[in-house]
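Fill in residues.
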């Protein structure tokens, strides 16, 4: 609904409305993470299993990353960027709309982590007289609000629709491979984790690096513990892209960092991708990130429901 409403916003006042929506989105996101942290902090079982949760997150992050990265060279052969220049018709859109801020991704990641830990501390020290069920209901309400605002901002950004219209179909190969690779890699990673079902593992992989959204959705669909694993695993995916982009380019072609970054390649990891893969890959990075950002809110529940038919 938010996506449709954003697309219908009239030209007049659109920029101002979207600016307010983006500010509101960040506020609601931090509020949601505090609420989720509060929910986790009130749950003694999750706190007691934090060591196991960290190990599970690392293994699943590695599986999702390797699944996507393994397919990056094949995507590069199919797409043939940028020597054949199939994307020049839309490249100017990125140059006009994207402002590269190298530290923005790091600041956002730290802010997310601090918000979540603040909520955990509030829950552990019982700052608020609140039950786990009350915290869960509050988290659910904030989640719906977040999804609505996020859809509105994506739908209202005309750059998104311009890129879709001006792009040749084969550019969809990369985000498609990222999704498939992440799901397969996460499923294989779950084989090393007796306490992690294939259903939960694939759903975590379906987050594609969007750690804030994936964690809250899975905390609601599955359990608070799975939500924390999703938060850490998808956050690790972004951090690996930021820290090891040069190596990813060398080992997995210039599409490697884009495959690793998943849904983050339209914003937080875009600076390092542009720096190490090349400016000619900026449009591919943004386009892949936009597609995955649109897909993730639907992909996680769909994977969870579908995998539930075969795994419990």
């Amino acid at each position: 609904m938010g996506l449709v409403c954003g697309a219908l916003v009239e030209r007049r006042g659109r920029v101002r409305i979207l600016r307010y929506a983006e500010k509101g989105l960040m506020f609601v996101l931090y509020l949601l993470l505090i609420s989720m942290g509060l929910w986790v902090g009130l749950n003694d079982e999750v706190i007691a299993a934090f060591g196991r949760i960290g190990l599970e997150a690392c293994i699943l992050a590695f599986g999702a990353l390797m699944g996507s990265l393994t397919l990056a060279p094949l995507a590069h052969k199919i797409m043939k960027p940028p020597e054949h220049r199939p994307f020049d018709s839309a490249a100017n859109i990125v140059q006009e709309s994207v402002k590269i801020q190298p530290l923005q991704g790091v600041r956002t990641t730290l802010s997310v982590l601090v918000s979540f830990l603040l909520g955990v501390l509030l829950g552990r020290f019982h700052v608020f007289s609140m039950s786990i069920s009350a915290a869960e209901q509050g988290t659910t309400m904030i989640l719906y609000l977040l999804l609505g605002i996020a859809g509105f901002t994506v739908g209202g950004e005309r750059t998104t629709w311009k890129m879709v219209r001006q792009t040749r179909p084969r550019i969809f190969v990369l985000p498609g491979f990222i999704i498939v690779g992440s799901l397969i890699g996460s499923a294989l990673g779950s084989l090393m984790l007796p306490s992690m079902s294939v259903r939960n593992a694939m759903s975590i992989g379906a987050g594609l690096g969007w750690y804030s959204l994936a964690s809250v959705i899975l905390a609601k669909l599955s359990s608070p513990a799975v939500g924390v694993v999703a938060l850490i695993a998808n956050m690790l995916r972004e951090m690996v892209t930021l820290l090891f982009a040069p190596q990813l380019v060398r080992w997995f072609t210039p599409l490697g960092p884009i495959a690793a970054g998943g849904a983050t390649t339209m914003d937080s990891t875009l600076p390092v991708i542009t720096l190490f893969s090349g400016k000619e890959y900026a449009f591919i990075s943004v386009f892949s990130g936009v597609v995955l950002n649109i897909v993730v809110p639907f992909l996680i529940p769909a994977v969870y429901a579908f995998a539930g038919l075969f795994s419990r």
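The radius of gyration is 19 Å.
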